Amino acid sequence: MNALPATPAAPARGALSFTHRFVPATDPAAAPLLLLHGTGGDENDLIPLGRMLSPGAALLSPRGRISEGGMPRFFRRLAEGVFDEEDVVRRAHELADFIGEARTAYGLAAPVAVGFSNGANIAAAMLMLRPDVLSGAALLRAMVPLANPPAGSLPGTPVLMLSGAADPIVPASNAARLAAQLNERGARVEHRVLPGGHGLTPTDMTAMRDWLARTGAAAA
Ligand code: MLT
Predict the structure, then answer these.
(1) What is the architecture, at CATH level 2, of domain 20-214?
(2) Does residue 188 sit in helix, strand or coil?
(3) pLDDT value for 217
(4) What are the sequence ranges of the domains in the chain?
């Protein structure tokens, strides 16, 4: 198995610990969204998605601090789908600390994460390791980030998992295991398997908007 090269990304710019974009709210009733990009993305990628999902919500969009051959990520991996779990733990805590900093700096409520692929996986790790940081999470094409996460409690935390029926990166059994881990911790998990692969489709958008409206995850 090939180990993929991973080196720390350039140090964060600005006063907060992650390079990021912040879009202030125009609707104070809308919960802030934490946008977490996939491998090779950056802090700009999911801003349009966030605007579409919850117009008027504050958007907080950090860039992953790992660089894999120049591609930003949120934690190291040893190969596709094989994670460096020690690094997952370290990076999940770093990101959780950044969210605390950003909440203070920008006066935000606990955000709802919207994570795609690697961004969904770090959001899942944060739910396991720092259950108080997120008020909910939409995990798009997520897989298990920690084989044996510590016991934790996520009582009633709304979590939407959207998996692709023909996803070549995330086996169905792996996504189901993540849903089970979250359910065991008390999260209110809705796991849907949509037609399609690892990429997002308009069906994902509809499902996320519907979930935000139904669960009240978008209401602060
Ligand atoms: C990961 O590395 O987090 C997953 O394999 C998804 C990806 O980013 O390709």
Answers:
(1) 3-Layer(aba) Sandwich (3.40)
(2) strand
(3) 63
(4) 20-214
